[in-house]
Every structure is written in structure tokens, then in C-alpha cells.
Write a structure and sequence with these properties.
This protein is of the alpha/beta class. 29% of the residues lie in helices and 19% in strands. InterPro entries: FUC_metazoa-typ, Fucosidase_C, GH, Glyco_hydro_29, Glyco_hydro_29_N, Glyco_hydro_b.
């Protein structure tokens, strides 16, 4: 049997390559999400485009929706924003005759250094990148002829003020590293003339699909991350046909990962991995990913202040909570129009990377254990306010609970027969890890601490003793990973 499994393992790549996927959800959904995606756990989202020039929206809203807020005088998001807030701001700062399309003349990216970006991403501990190739305004970050043709003006980064293939340059820089490179792509465009006039077949066949296939053929992404799908069915978008081409014929057919945003009502039902957005507490039986900004906007919003950004502590807890539930965190940054990543965003990434340098073993290549978390005594039904949920909500569930509510004492991940128990607070003296059954070979250690820890088996699990540590001996900040080897079921 052992030899048979080995033979099947050797044949697996050829089996996958020989698979012919049909344009049906049954066939497309049968394709496994690539293992590299499940192993990666942490990625960086980048929202960057001409909306990065005004870089403004009310707190609690998406600044990358600037054009839509401006022209519709209607805004959704947290904090009950005034419907005309962006319209009023635009007229005051830019003037009522200044068109959104003129922002392309100011998107010069003169400080853009893709190699420096790639080095920052490496240091953050992220394993993949997803860049907005084109958001809902239709502006393309690569030399897309379809983009300029559709709008009758230079409407891509190469033909407008930037004068460079900003997407291609970052792709080249990232591919010098071990990180994976992916692209976000909006299926719909708010004000594309074909789309606005409801010439949907022409829009899809002559604009959208040629752009998507050009991105894949020219840049060979590891991820195709679609969005803007919600107005129409996957049939109108020809999503199943595109995915069949992607999986059968494209140059990335054997490695590419895709998300679940392929048509109205499709999310968390079909496609590749499932996605959530500004949510907490989710868990699925399929690989999944939570995406969010460090504040409440994906695009850079200069209206946000330091208190609007998630702390490093809450972002680390968010990452740990998601990974223990079997998911990935896709954490967004929004560079400015000059090509600068705001220092507060750089700082957050570097601090997460510093934590992962010590504790990455408990994150990367792991899977969810049978138990997601260990709760303290108390109520477990605390819920954050409705709307886009801040990552700071995790502080309420860990270190700063409301009276009467329980906290998550430990988060669990697993790699083979090793279980990792990640504590939001450093235990002092003896503490209980519930549900673990040690074997005769079991050892317990804290990642970053050289000395092994003593433990004993008790009725509910194992009792671990943590020695008193000096400040110098504590290996990291915010959360502490305990490694328990050779557990038995």
C-alpha cells in the first residue's frame, strides 16, 4: 500500500495536467485550490489607481469609490456619512469643472520603487501579493489598449501621466522573490460607455475578456482575484467559460488560484477559495480568505487618522484567528499617487513580519485543528457592531472583554502530529491546554524560547509550566505560540 501511494503521488501532477475542465460549476469546482495558497496564510492586497490622487472619502468608507460617490451623491459605509460629502469635498478642493478623468494627469507615481516594495513585502512575512490591475473606474495599471479605447482618452498608466507599466514593473520585482503575484480585476466598470448603455455582450466579449486574457498571457499571475460581479449572473460574465480556458489552456493552468466572485449569488458557493470582507468569526469547509484594509478603506484615505488604523496587536490577533479557522488574511495597503506606501502602513507590515519571524512555524503550512479556540469562562456570544468590522474587535475577544464575556485564551493550528496553541497573553506559571492527548514522545516548547517546557497530563488535557521570564527572554510581543509535538487523537 505504501508503494502504491508513492506511485499515485508521482502521477498526481500528470493527472492534474490531463484533467479537462468543462464550463460547468460542477466541473470547475472539482479543481482543488492549489496547496501553495492554503500554505501561504498571509497576503498583501494593494489598491492603487487614479483614486489615489484625491485619496479622500468620509471616515468608514471606501476612498477607491471616489468616482461613484462623486457622480451619484450617495455613499455607503460606517458612521452614516453625508451622501454629498465627496461631491462637496471635490468641488471645494478641485472645482466643480474638474473631471474625475483628469486625475490621470496627476497619477505620476514618481516615487514608485517596485523593488523596494517587494523587499518590504518580504520583510512583512507575506507570501503573496494581489494588486488592483483595474478597479471599477476602468483605469488600467498596465498598457491596456482596451481601456483607452473604451473611454476615448488615455486611461491606462502607460499612456497617462505615469508613463510606465506599473503592474508589469511590480510583477517583475515580486517574481525576483519567493512571493506569489496576483491581480485583482473588476468585472464591471461604472461608467464604461458599453456597460452604461447595457451592451453587455459587447462589453464582455470585446473589452472584459480580452483584458483578462491579456493579463494572464502577458504576466502569468498566480492569482486571478475578480470583483464587481454582483450586478449580473455568471452567465452574462461568461465566468465559467473563462475559468475553463484558465484551467485548460492558459499558461498558468496548473498553478493559478482564483476566488469566488464570478457572478451574482456565487460567493461562497462556486469558484476557487471563498472570500469575506471586513468580517470576523467566519469558518468554512473550503479554503478561504478575509480581505480588509488597515483602516476602513482599501485605497489610501488621507482623511483617516492614526486611531482609524488597526493596531499591530489587533492585526496579529486577526491573522491568528483567521488561520486557526482555516483561512488566509489578505491585508490591504493603499499607496499614494506618488508611489509611496504610507509610513504607518509600512510600520504595521514590518511589525507583523517581526512577529512572524518568531512564530511563523505556527502559521505557515498549517491547517485548522479540530478545536478552533479555547475559551475562558463566561458568555461567548459577544458580537461587534454591524457594518464593516474593525480588527480591533479581536481585542474584545482576547485581552479587553466586556464584563461577563469570555475571551479566547488560545488559538489552535496544526501541522501533522504537532499542534500549536497561540496565546494572546503570556501565561504565567501553570496553564491548561485543553483537549490535547500527549504521547510518550510529546514535547512542549514556546517558539523563540530555547528551553523546553515541563508539562503533565491531566484530565482535560495538558498542564504546561511557563518559567518566569525577564523582558529580554520574552521572544516577541502580542501573542505567544506553544508547540506540542506528537499528540494523539
Amino acid at each position: 500500500m505504501k508503494h502504491l501511494r508513492h506511485l499515485l503521488w508521482l502521477l498526481l501532477p500528470f493527472t492534474l495536467q490531463a484533467q479537462n475542465y468543462k464550463p460547468t460549476w460542477e466541473s470547475i469546482d472539482s479543481r482543488p485550490v492549489p496547496a501553495w495558497f492554503e500554505n501561504a496564510k498571509f497576503g498583501i492586497f494593494i489598491h492603487w489607481g487614479v483614486y489615489s490622487v484625491p485619496a479622500w472619502s468620509p471616515k468608514g468608507t471606501y476612498s477607491e469609490w471616489y468616482q461613484h460617490w462623486l457622480q451619484n451623491k450617495k455613499i455607503f459605509g460606517n458612521n452614516n456619512p453625508s451622501p454629498t460629502a465627496v461631491f462637496d469635498h471635490h468641488n471645494k478642493v478641485w472645482g466643480k469643472d474638474f473631471s474625475y478623468y483628469q486625475f490621470a494627469d496627476h497619477f505620476k507615481v514618481e516615487d514608485y520603487d517596485p523593488d523596494a516594495w517587494a523587499k518590504l513585502f518580504e520583510r512583512s512575512g507575506a507570501k503573496y501579493i494581489v494588486l488592483t490591475s483595474k478597479h471599477h473606474d476602468g483605469f488600467a495599471l498596465w498598457p491596456s489598449k482596451e481601456a483607452s479605447k473604451a473611454f476615448g482618452r488615455p486611461w491606462n498608466a502607460m499612456e497617462s501621466a505615469a508613463k510606465r507599466d506599473v503592474l508589469g514593473d511590480l510583477t517583475t520585482a515580486v517574481k525576483k522573490t519567493d512571493l506569489k503575484m496576483g491581480f485583482y480585476y473588476s468585472l464591471y466598470e461604472w461608467y464604461n460607455p458599453l456597460y452604461v448603455s447595457k451592451q453587455y455582450d459587447k462589453y464582455v466579449n470585446e473589452h472584459m475578456l480580452p483584458q483578462m486574457k491579456e493579463l494572464v498571457n502577458r504576466y502569468e499571475p498566480d492569482i486571478v482575484w475578480t470583483d464587481g460581479e454582483w450586478d449580473h449572473s455568471d452567465t452574462l460574465w461568461k465566468s465559467r467559460e473563462f475559468l475553463a480556458w484558465l484551467y485548460n489552456e492558459s499558461p498558468v493552468k496548473d498553478k493559478v488560484a482564483v476566488n469566488d466572485r464570478w457572478g451574482k449569488g456565487i460567493r461562497q458557493k462556486h469558484g476557487g477559495y471563498y472570500t469575506t470582507e471586513y468580517e470576523v468569526g467566519k469558518k468554512y469547509d473550503r479554503p478561504w480568505e478575509e480581505c480588509r484594509g488597515m483602516g476602513f478603506s482599501f485605497g489610501y484615505n488621507r482623511n483617516e487618522d492614526v486611531e482609524d488604523y488597526n493596531s499591530t496587536q489587533s492585526l496579529i490577533y486577526l491573522l491568528v484567528d483567521i488561520v486557526s479557522s482555516g483561512g488566509n488574511l489578505l491585508l490591504d495597503i493603499g499607496p499614494d499617487a506618488h508611489g509611496k506606501i504610507p509610513p504607518i502602513m509600512q510600520e504595521r507590515l514590518l511589525e507583523i513580519g517581526k512577529w512572524l519571524d518568531v512564530n511563523g512555524e505556527a502559521i505557515y503550512n498549517t491547517r485548522a485543528w479540530k478545536t478552533h479556540v479555547q475559551w475562558s469562562e463566561g458568555r461567548q456570544d459577544w458580537k461587534p457592531a454591524s457594518g464593516m468590522v474593525s480588527g480591533e474587535a479581536l481585542l474584545k475577544q482576547t485581552v479587553n472583554p466586556d464584563p461577563g464575556f469570555a475571551v479566547k485564551e488560545l488559538f489552535f493550528t496544526r501541522n501533522g502530529s504537532t499542534v500549536y496553541a497561540i496565546a494572546p497573553q503570556l501565561p504565567e506559571g501553570k496553564f491548561l491546554i485543553k483537549g490535547l492527548q500527549p504521547s510518550s514522545r510529546t514535547t512542549v516548547s514556546m517558539l523563540g524560547l530555547r528551553q523546553p517546557l515541563t508539562y503533565k497530563k491531566v484530565k482535560d488535557g495538558i498542564e504546561v509550566t511557563v518559567p518566569k521570564l525577564s523582558i529580554r527572554e520574552v521572544p516577541c510581543e502580542h501573542a505567544f505560540a506553544f508547540k506540542v509535538t506528537y499528540i494523539t487523537e
